[in-house]
Amino acid sequence: MSWLSTAASVGMAVGPPLVYADQTFSIVRKRDATGFSRDVCAILLLANITRCFFWLGNHFETALLVQSILMILAQLGLLYICIMYRPKLSPEGTGSSKRPFSFWQWPTYTQYIEFLCGFILCQAIIFLILGRSDLYVNILGFVALGLESTLPIPQLISNYRQRSLYGFRMSTLVGWFGGDAFKTAYFFVQDAPLQFKVCAIFQLSVDVAIVIQRVVYGNSPPMSVIMDEVDELEEALALAEDN
After folding, report:
1. Tens digit of pLDDT for each residue in 87-117?
2. pTM of the prediction?
3. How far apart, in whole angstroms, are the C-alpha atoms of residue 30 and residue 92?
4. Quick one: angle between helices 170-189 and 2-18, nearest 10?
């Protein structure tokens, strides 16, 4: 069954980053990132960067390390596209951000990259100081996997506020639920570190909550999108009358 194990490892490495391909194409096609929480990119980037440092202290399966590297690259690309096509009423666009230092609601892509570089530098310095401590490595693992397990929560909150899953691709939801169910089973079969098992179960439970939201709310456009369309129609009619 070695071929089956190899196939599962390849799936674990490549599958999760590919989940976001259809979401990316949808945003580009509509030229609108409404409905997709950019905080998802933040969680995945910070979690997978931290997981790479966890690997330096605890050499878990290589497929999971490759998955983290591919996910970082995928989320950097998705983040760029989300900023390019962010909604007109985004907090950074209206200057209404209520977060400290407008965290993760900055106007330019460069600011995100600068923050991530600073985050990596801080992680590297701390690891050089405490990297030989088993306690620190174990804590680092729980931080990395715990942070990743909160991945669906921003989307859960966004769906609740909109009372809709508009803009959030069904393929992404299926990928989340199916992928998390697969990786939960994979972690137990491969006897991955405890951090992987506990956090995978939590993440899968949040996926279930989003599936329930999809059934209850549907994916009709929220009021903010409808009002934007009305405003654009009124502007077009006004221009037509002027001409």
Report:
1. 877 777 677 778 888 888 898 999 999 999 9
2. 0.74
3. 21
4. 140
